[in-house]
Amino acid sequence: MHRILPVALVLMAGLAPGPVPIAVAQDQNQDQAEETGDDERRVRRLRDSLAIDPETEWQPNLDTSNLDAEIQRKLGAAERAFQAGDLTSPPQANALYYFRQVLDVDPQNRDAQQGVGRVADQLVAQARSAQEAGDRAAAVAYIEAVKAFRPNYPGLQTLEDEITRRGEIVALLATAEEQIANSRLTSPEGDNALESLRAVLAIDSGNADAQDGLQRVESALLARAQSAIGSDDFVEAGSLIESAESVRGGSPAVDEARTALDEARQAAWEQRLQQAQASIREGDLDSAEASLQGLAEAGYPDVDELDALRAEIDRIRRLRAFPPGSTLTDELASGGTAPTITVVPAGSFTMGSPSGERDRSENEGPTREITFTIPFGLGETEVTVADFRRFVEATGYVTSAEETGESTIYNVLGDGLKTEAGITWRQDFQGQEAKDEEPVVHVSWNDAKAYAEWLASETGQPYRLPSEAEFEYALRGGTDSPYWWGSGTPREEVENLTGERDRMAGRWEWPDPFDRYGDDHWGPAPVKSFQPNPFGLYDIGGNVLEWVADCYSAGHANAPADGSAVTTGNCGVHVLKGGGWALPPAMSRSASRSSAQSDRSTCLVGFRVARDL
Description:
disordered N terminus; rod-shaped; alpha+beta
C-alpha cells in the first residue's frame, strides 16, 4: 500500500516556505486531530501544499516507503540531543524540535509523545535545581520554556509560584541585610529589618535565614541598650530592651539585659539621690536640681520623693530672700497681722550644758551637736496680750485657766506665788488688767499650741511652737557661754531679770538675784523693752518662761540631731525654756530647762511662735 505523503514530509523535503512555530504547530495538530481523521488531514495538507483544488476528485498515488526511516532518523536525532542536554536549543537542532517534527508527521507516535514529555520533565527538574541554587532567572527561563509547549504541565503553576515566592524571599532578605547594615532595625515604619524579616516568615515560616536575621536584630538592639545603660539613659535602654523582646518573644539574652538595666538603674538612682540630698544640705541648689533632673530622666519611679526634694529646694531658695536677722509679718484672714517673725540663720550648736558649767542640772545633758540645715523663723517677741486677744475674739477659744477657773499670780505682799480664782489671760502677773503690749501669761501649753494652729490657718503659713533645740539655738545667738550676754551678771540692761537693784513697792527684793543688776521691772515688762540678742530676738533670755513643743524627758539623750521636737516620753508635761523676771540666775542660763503640766498656767509663763520659711 502507499500512504499519502503528509505535509510534514513535504516540509522536510524543503518545499515549505519556512518553519512553523512549535507552540502554534502543536495547537494546529491538536485542533485538526480532533476535527478529522488522520487520512483526511494528510490529504488536506497535501492539497494545501500543492495548491490542488479540493473539489477535484483526483488522488495522487505517491511512494511513502521511506517515511518510517525518516521518522526513526528524527527520533534518533532527538534522543542524541536529549542526552547531550540540548533540550530546546540550539534552534532546529534540539530534542524538542526533533520530537515535534515526528509528531507533525505522526501525531500518534508514542516515542515522540513520550520524548516531548521527557523534555518537559527535564526542564522542570532543571527549574527546580536552579531554584534550589538560588538562580531565579534560570528557573524562570526553564518554566517559560515548558509553558511554551506544555502550558498545562502538572504542578507547573505550583512550581512557578514557588519560584516567585523564592524570589520575593531573596529580595526581602537582601533588603533586610541592607537595613541591618544601616541600623534601620525597627524603624522607620515601612523601611526596617524587622518588617522585612517578618514578611519572609509570612511566606516561609521556617526560613532559617529570616530566623537568623531576627536574632541579629535582637542582638543589635541589646547592644544599643547596653550602650544606653553605660550613658545612664535608662529610659532609652528600657525601650530598646522592650523592642528586643518583641523581636522573638524574649530570650535569655533579653532577660540578662533587663537584669543589667535594673541593677545599673538602681545603683545610679541611689547615687544621684544621695548627691541631691548632699547638695541640698550643702546649699548647692543648682547641683541638687541637676541630680533630680537626672533622676527623672533616668525613670526614677518615686515621683512623690522627687517632688518633695524639689519643694525643699524651692523653700530654701525662698529662704534666701530672708537674710538672717530680717523680719516678716503675715496678714491674718480675719484682719490684722500675725506677730513679727525674725529669720534665724542655719547653723550648728552644742545643745545642753557641759559638765563643768556652774549651776548645771543633770537634765541639761548629755550635750548634743544639733545642726539646722536651713533657716527658720521665730517670733521677734513673746506673743502679746493684744495678739492673743485677736485670736480669742476671732474663735471664741476658751483657755485652760478659764476651764479650771484659776491660775497662779504673784502675791503683792511679797509672799510669792499663789493660786487665785478668776484669773485668765486678760490679767497680768498680779491679777490686774493686763496691758496690750505685755507678754500674755496665764496660758497653758494647750493654749499656746491652739494659738499657733490658728495662725497657720489664718495666714496659710506653717506656724507652730518652736522645738527646744530651736529655742536654745536662737537664745544662744551663736554663743557658747552660760548666758547669751556672757558668763555672769550683764554689764548693761539686756533682759528683764531678777537683779540686786530691783525693788517691789520700794521695799521687797530678790533673795538670789544677779549681783549689782537692775532693770527697773518687777513683773513682766512690755515686749521689746530691752535690747535684742545677737540673732535679733527680744526678751528670749528673760521676761517670762516660754512653752516649747517638746514632750519632757530627763535629758537630751534622744534629742533629734536635726533640731526637731521630741514627741515621745512624758507628753502630759512639756518643756519650758528661757529666763524670767522672777527666776534666779541659774534658771536664766541658755541651757536651763523647766517643765510643767500641759494644761497648767501661771504668771511666770508665756510663749512665742515659730514659722517654717
